[in-house]
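Continuing from the previous page...

OK, I double-checked the sequence for HotDog ACOT-type domain-containing protein against my notes and this is the correct one:
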Amino acid sequence: MWLGFTGFMENLLQEEVEIMESMELERDWVLKFSDDFRVLIGEDGSKMLELVRWDPALAVTALEREFMVDEEKVKKAFKFPVKHGKELDLEDDDVRRLNLLNTLPLVSPYSDGWKHELSSLEAEKYRVGVIHEFLSLTLEKKASIHHIVEFKEEFSLTKHTYQMLKKQPRTFYLAGTEMNWVVFLKDGYDENGNLIQKDPQQERWGKMLEDLDALAGTISYKHCSNPDGMTRPILLVTASVDKILLKKPIRIDADLSLVGAVHGLGGHPWRCSLKCCNHHKTVLFYMLCIYLWVDGFDEKKIDGSQMSNSVALVANFTFVARDGETGKSSPINHISPETTQEKLLWEQAEARNKMRRLKRAEQNKEKNKKVVSRIDKLLAEGQEFVDLPALADMDSILIRDTCQQSSMICQPQQQNVHGRIFGGYLMRKASELAFSTAYTFDGASPRFVEVDHVYFVKPVDVGNFLRMKSCTPVFSIPNF
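Thanks. Re-ran it with the corrected sequence; updated structure tokens here:
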């Protein structure tokens, strides 16, 4: 008994029998498709049909597939068709309203939208500005219409949101199926439908520092190893990072390569110079031929300026070697420059070493009076904030108000070959904290320029509790 649905269910069963007869299907047709279906018998003797294999091709009919939008193709590059008032086949009054709606000034999205009458032109301009601002803050400059209407109360949206967006063909582009529209911000795409500015925060400078330190360590170990394999066990330590300078912007859609070499006076400690290069096809082909040792390839055919002009970042790492058994200073292999480039690096390293020694001598003899005067002035200004805050400069803040910190337990996953925490990982975490501190201070995404110096004072072991602190000691407006 079907409890009130007897007649309806009988009609459904009768229609099912008629359909099966029209398709010339037998009553036990399920048993012929054992790869797809299986009949299960329950404890009460009832039969249940179980799907064994899912075939996506059977999900929709061929007729339905013809009218479905290829979502993967929509996500790729495409051109935005621009329609103006004359092409929309509107009446004169609607054309006039459309032209008024696309005419500046728009209503600021940061104003109070509730003060406008819901059906007024100002209220509609306000809603357009709010959605424009919302899409401009997204990474891909687009959003599903369902995600937008989730904020209907905050954005003062009405049930005519889709019609409102259709009247803004110069600002928005609507794509997708009828009930699953995707709203694109045209300002974020070029004429071919490609995203103009990729996510700038995907440039993971912390990960770049980690990779640079790993490459510098690999190069140093290779330099200290003997060809006969009889190298005495040594312990290499990253003593400091002298300089990391960004010469050109690094884009996430560009091919990058990290190259480096040991140079210096062959003494102890020694320096490892690294470069990060942006490459075009010619330079990539050049590097591939060198890596594969292609016979007959002439390196002189490649213009050296192509390699030098592609350098986007330079870094200098200083290493020291300790004997693995005694812990004392260990001798390393000396450097013999051969090519013109190697001799130039040798001379530059010697000049930097001399300059460093001179600066240390000058600092030990006499401190810079201008620096001392500047420090005294800043300390006096900070003391005024503490003692008499009402009289202090309102355009200044105390350094302690910019401080940020993070804590973590060092895990064995981040240890190096010597069982201690990898120095590149520490620089990565410090870089991420510095990014957060700068972001909090300025209220905008900061841009990496350079790292002045990094000193590794003490080693960090697995299991140590590590606390990192950062602040913004100096703020100046760069001259762009």
